[in-house]
Amino acid sequence: MRVSVLQDKLAKGLSIASRAVASRPSMPILGNVLLATEDGRLSISANNLELGITCRINASVEADGALTVPARTLLDLVNTLPPERVDLEVDPDAATLTMRCNSTVTNIKGLPADDFPAVVAPDEEAGIELPAPTLASMIEQVVFAAAREDNRPILMGILVRVTDDNLAMVAADGFRMALRTAQLESGASRPMSFIVPARTLGELGRILAGEEGPVHMALAPGRNQVMFRVADADVVSQLIDGKFPDVEALIPKASSTTTTLQTMDLLLACKRSEIFAREANNTMRLRVEPGSGDSGQVIVMATAQERGDNEGSLEATVKGGGLEISFNVRYLIEVLNVLDDEQVTLETNTISSPGLIKPAGRDDFVYVVMPMSVR
Length: 375
Hints:
Helix content is 17%, strand content 44%.
């Protein structure tokens, strides 16, 4: 293999693919990236047997070939090179990659490409297609709500459900639940329901940043895998086996109080409260006070025994009775951080009933959060 690429393109491709490199590989080759020529471009692949990423970059290809080399060694080295042309040449007999850039010449020992686990390309004839910005937004608005600890592995995944012309993503960790839906431009050939590791969708979301084109999503028949293809990258992931809990049953069907606030005002009030709430198990209190007509206010409060307290008053539109309820302030900050809408609505019933947060005037996103018990 003889290939020439630009240093910045090579660094970006390695950075993307390396996210799928095993941190503690069970086999030496899983700590490597696969460099291979593909249709006149350079393909960079990594695979940890749960997540596989392939990134393709423009290159000048003089001779085809392939080799795997240590991912960290190559990435660290490329990041130190000047922004110039990088020449790559593989000696298949010695399993060595020679890299030349300006006055720098480096030889890196590798392993044969035949031993590297293949990253399966998605089936272009099956699955669904949706705009990259839509998928990126959906991922951002649910992935943070997935469980981070493996005491309930199923909740470390995100339920993806396709029915007719609708796509839904659901994440939950036992204390809150995020549901985001989107309409598909063209209907799915068949219904689909599967659970993707939250980490996979998190990495996919990073790859989709700035992308404007379509994303193709398809299941790999008989392989328990889902595949995503965007312009210059493929992401392949193992699925999580099991039945996702019916967390959508937690969504309140009605509310006794509906409060609408400015999103940024509430976010900043929560961030101020967090400074004190973090010493009290992240407990923040909201007191909803109706006024005349639909006008009212929300008092945001947090107290730290050793540090002090914070209280802020926000103007709001309040329909229904007053209420004081406590939430984990971090759970509110995390959802408000991913909403671009000018206003949000908080629906509540009792101090022990779940609260529901959604963008004002939009019904494609729902966030349910359990209240905290305060003595």
